[in-house]
Amino acid sequence: MGKKNTMNGEKTLSPERIAETKAFKNTDFSDCPMLSKEELKKLRPRHPEYFKPKKQAVQIRLDADVLAWFKGHGKGYQSRINSVLREVMLNSEQK
Q: How far apart are CA 26 and CA 46, in angstroms?
């Protein structure tokens, strides 16, 4: 297996993939069908490891037992809460 491209623990694109992406700008898309707004809403990142949505600090009140449960699973409880909320959000959009 080849070495994974990482920078400060984050995955990065290889020089080959960057060159491939830059060459893609000159592609003719005139024969590609346009997607409707509904179809665009259903799209999900193919490589979620490269998808980094902007984070926003918020203050939220949670039931003490819910917070204790998330914290009881160790470090990263805020990320786990975010993950659960994202899953609920994505599942509600599909219905």
A: 22
**Beta strand 10-11 with 6-7: parallel, antiparallel or unpaired?**
antiparallel
Q: What is residue 34's three-state secondary structure?
A: coil
Both tokens assigned to 40: 């665009």
Q: Is the pTM of this model over 0.70?
A: no
CA distance 40 to 34: 10
Asked if residues 23 and 16 have their Cβ atoms less than 8 Å apart, the reply is no
Q: Which residues on neighbouring strands pair with residue 6, listed in sequence order? A: 11
- Residue-wise pLDDT for 74-95, tens only, equals 999 999 999 999 889 888 866 5
Between the two ends of the chain, the Cα-to-Cα distance in Å is 40
What one-character-per-residue DSSP string does 32-69 give? SPPPPHHHHHH---SSGGG--PPP--------HHHHHH
Beta strands in 1-95 (DSSP E): 6-7, 10-11
